[in-house]
Amino acid sequence: MADEKKFVPFVPANTSMKEFTGRALLIGLVLAVVLGAANAYLGLKAGMTIAATYPAAVIGMAILRFFKGSILEENFARTVGSIGESVAAGAIFTLPAFYISGVWS
Hints:
Elements: H1 22-46, H2 53-66, H3 71-101
Helix pairs in contact: 1-2, 1-3, 2-3
């Protein structure tokens, strides 16, 4: 183990690369709404959901590459975009159970 390489991060700590930008937030919110709605439809129709993180990552990366975005913006847009899946999954698995049990009639 004498040939161990020193770890060099992709984004060094001394850089001032922006992560939280308006365009990354807007892209992430649009992805959250679209992927959340698609997940809710699929979950109610088929009884299962998909991982929205992967499509959010690919779409966010493609859009931000066009606008010369940074890798940190891409990560932020993917994270915000994948939130829609969690919200939709929580609703589609909980609300029908409330309806069936008679809590909401």
